[in-house]
Design brief:
Layout: E1 6-10, H1 17-30, E2 35-39, H2 45-55, H3 64-88, E3 92-96, H4 99-109, H5 114-125, E4 132-137, H6 140-148, H7 161-177, E5 182-186, H8 191-207
Parallel strand pairs: 1-3, 1-4, 2-3, 4-5
The protein binds thymidine-5'-phosphate (TMP).
The site of thymidine-5'-phosphate has 12 residues, from helix 4.
Length: 208
């Protein structure tokens, strides 16, 4: 039996990541691939409770390091409860966000630093990095205009334009740091085209 793969989708808010990763998962499942879709922050009952605390717009007093630790705690629980058992069982996992989000958002958006955020995440995930990551590349203006059109904005969506610009730049650093793991898909085009390319990429990884 082939080793199950752990694949993550990453991208700034407004990149279409959730729509694309769900559509890719459904298409692969229909073709008979064993794939489990999950997301962060959240993905398990305890991790979803932590998500609610992190994203609650009322929690304006949350300290940046507290936020980074909560994302790492939620990731740990999600990994142990959902991701690892699926992989051990031979099921491929597609996760909408994982560690790279913390590197970009907390490391750069909150200006804690990528290495500092990586080190607390290493405690949380030990050696369990994704096998491959699909990055949905969108320009900052398009991403931001899509978020502004949403009816509900969570605590992070409500952050300043400067914060979101630091996140975009943070992802560029993450792409350089992990160029062997991350595959870039241009998301500045109609969603159907983005889904098609992402599907081909993920199928290629599962067929390896
Ligand atoms: P979502 O919109 O993809 O559900 O993610 C919720 C928000 O959480 C989004 O603004 C990105 C942010 N986030 C972080 O800041 N750090 C993380 O580690 C993760 C997983 C998400």
């Amino acid at each position: 039996m082939k080793k199950a793969k752990f694949i993550t989708f990453e991208g700034p808010d407004g990149s279409g990541k959730t729509t694309v990763s769900k559509a890719v998962t459904e298409r692969l499942q229909k073709e008979g691939y064993l794939v489990r879709y999950t997301r962060e922050p959240g993905g398990s009952e305890i991790a979803e409770q932590i998500r609610d605390v992190i994203l609650d717009p009322k929690n304006t007093k949350m300290d940046a390091r507290t936020e980074a630790l909560l994302y790492a705690a939620s990731r740990r629980q999600h990994l142990v409860e959902i991701i690892m058992p699926a992989l051990e069982n031979g099921t491929n996992v597609i996760s909408d966000r994982f560690i790279d989000s913390s590197l970009a958002y907390q490391g750069c958006g909150r200006q804690i630093g990528i290495e500092e955020v990586f080190s607390i995440n290493q405690f949380a995930i030990e050696h369990h990095m994704p096998d491959k990551t699909v990055y949905l590349d969108i320009d900052a203006e398009t991403g931001l205009s899509r978020i502004q059109g949403r009816s509900f904005l969570d605590r992070l969506d409500q952050e300043s334009i400067d914060f979101h610009e630091r996140v975009f730049n943070g992802y560029q650093e993450v792409l350089k740091k992990y160029e062997d793991r991350i595959i870039i898909v241009n998301a500045n085009r109609p969603v159907e085209e983005v889904i098609e390319e992402a599907y081909q990429v993920v199928k290629g990884i599962l067929d390896e």
